[in-house]
Amino acid sequence: MIRRTILASAAMLAFATGSALAQTSSPTPAPAVTEVAGVKYDNTLQLANTRLVLNGAGIRYKAIFKVYTAGLYLSAKAATPDAVLATPGPKRMHIVMLRDIDANELGKLFTRGMQDNAPKEEFSKSIVGTLRMSDLFSAKKKLLTGENFSVDWVPGVGTTVLINGKSTGEPIKEPEFFTALVKIWLGQSPADHQLKDALLGKAPSTRDPFAN
Length: 212
Description:
The chain is an alpha+beta fold. The chain contains seven helices and eleven strands.
């Protein structure tokens, strides 16, 4: 009788220990969002019936000031600018403002960034789209803290700009426009080198507060 009791107790202890180990070793579910400066980016989304993943997200600084967050979505992870541009399927750049900014001035900065990073021939093919984008920002007047805009590229359709989730007109057909636009952040002279690294999924490094 005593032997049976000991064996039963041992079996129950083994079962309890195994259950505890199974619970401990269960994988932790991956978070559904990535948070950057209080802004939440979904780790996956659907665009044009395609599942996109968040390649990376970071903050655009101007000196010590946070201007906006940006997140890059692709159909597959990419670690270099060339790989980003070569990735097939739809793409999205999503930006959320962290401070109020004159929309017309932001449009001018984007245009200058495109000129600084795109070869002349490539930029010349994106002029129509650049003028369209400048008009959109001019009409908006001001982007307020918390407002957002997305730039979506869909093969065969073109580039669509959405402000606060609403489409702003017909797609811009020229593929060179989206390429030149992405190079604002991923080109040889990016708007912010640490933001470039973040969009490419690289670990953040110590930031110089007086760098652009």
